[in-house]
Amino acid sequence: MNRGTAWGRAGLCAVLAACATLCQAAEPLKIRIAWVVPVTNIPSILFDKKGVAVHEGQSYAMEAVHFQGTPPMITALATGDIEIGLLGFSSLPLGIENADMKDLRIIADELRDGMPGYYSNEFMVRRDSPVRSPADLKGRILATNAYGSAVDVAMRALLKKNGIDAKSDVTIVEASFASMKAMLLEKKVDLVPTGLPFAEDPALRAQARTIAVERDAMGPNALGVWVARAGFLARNRAVMVDLMEDYLRMIRWYTDPRNHDEAVAIAAAFAKRPAEIFAGWLFTHKDYYRDPDGLPDLAALQANIDVERDLGFLKQPVDIRQYVDLTIVTEAASRLKTPAQAK
After folding, report:
1. Structure pTM?
2. Which long-range contacts (CB under 8 A, 24 or more apart) does 261-269 make?
3. DSSP conformation class of 51
4. 28-114+221-342 matches 122-218 in fold
5. Residue 68 clears pLDDT 80, i.e. is over it
6. What is the pLDDT of residues 117-126, one digit of tens each?
7. CA–CA separation, 102 and 104 (whole Å)
8. Where are the beta strands (DSSP E) in 137-288?
9. Read out DSSP for 278-319?
């Protein structure tokens, strides 16, 4: 082999390597985002309205990944099976304390329970039940979706406020939200926690009544925040700003009253349920609160976590300010300037 041939082949290899690098760079970054409840968790329908997001499919490609609850998301974040988890005040500190994931970072707000003028999860009993208030629950059987979940922590806080010991004065059983209506109406349990969209089931409304809401126990609370790992954010900051910009665009579009009918149609199509189930509440003040700038209420979140520790779910205090990076969503919001320009 002569020198010219060797240099020619080396040059060709360099060109091919450069082309491969450019092709890789042109591929949108795959970002997997977790969700639990259809429609209520916005990733489930985030980009079902076309033409609003401007970066999706360009700098990134989002994949919405369904989970039965938030604890498995912690494992998925640890193993790299998702990039963004949807954690609440109950699960986030468990990821920090139990899983020792000190690099978890809150990057945006998704929804809050119990904000003034907005929806709060409900605790319901049968209409013919003698239970009139939480103080009447002693000796009763209560349902929860999962030990340590947001509604579970709130229910235990509610019991404590009413002088009832959750360990000795009541029986608590686990059940899926989808099965709770039947369990309540068939008298297998005396109380169920429920939230949107399950709470708007006409049969449940007709045969059950609300004796308390989550706000009564927790005040306004962080039902869901977007959480990612610091290393991923550092490596992909520019793309994450693009994602956050599109997220804010979509939140503002969905919550704009002018788009309500179309938003309801999108939700109904995804859930395969009649539109009238969603029409009266979805993306209105009867829904959970969604911040148009994606900013969480950190003071409320800290208060929620403190209640969780007081109930014995956490061994040590968790200072949530150490686990926040809102610079990405703030930069994204600055691109939009005003909500009106983003619609």
Report:
1. 0.83
2. 262/49, 263/49, 266/45, 266/48, 266/49, 267/39, 267/45, 269/48
3. T
4. yes
5. no
6. 999 999 999 9
7. 6
8. 141-144, 171-174, 192-194, 208-213, 221-229
9. HHTTTTSTTS-B--TT----HHHHHHHHHHHHHTTS-SS---
Nearest by Cα to 123 from 39, 208, 220, 218? 208
Which residue's structure tokens are 């619609």?
343
As to burial, measured by CB atoms within 10 angstroms (0-12 exposed, 13-18 middle, 19+ buried), residue 123 is: buried
Domain boundaries, the chain: 28-114+221-342, 122-218
Ramachandran bin of 300, using left for φ above 0, alpha for ψ from -120 to 50, beta for the remaining angles: alpha
Hey, what CATH topology would domain 122-218 get? D-Maltodextrin-Binding Protein; domain 2 (3.40.190)
Distance CA 132, CA 209 (A): 9
**Confidence at 108, pLDDT banded by 50, 70, 90:** very high
Q: Which residue has the tokens 């788009």?
A: 259
Show Cβ contacts of residue 181 under 8 Å, excluding neighbours closer than 6 positions.
192, 194, 198, 201, 203, 204, 208
C-alpha triplet 155, 191, 112: angle, nearest 5°: 40
Q: What H or E segment, with its residue span, contains residue 55?
A: none
Question: 28-114+221-342 belongs to which CATH class?
Answer: alpha beta
What is the average pLDDT across 190-214? 93
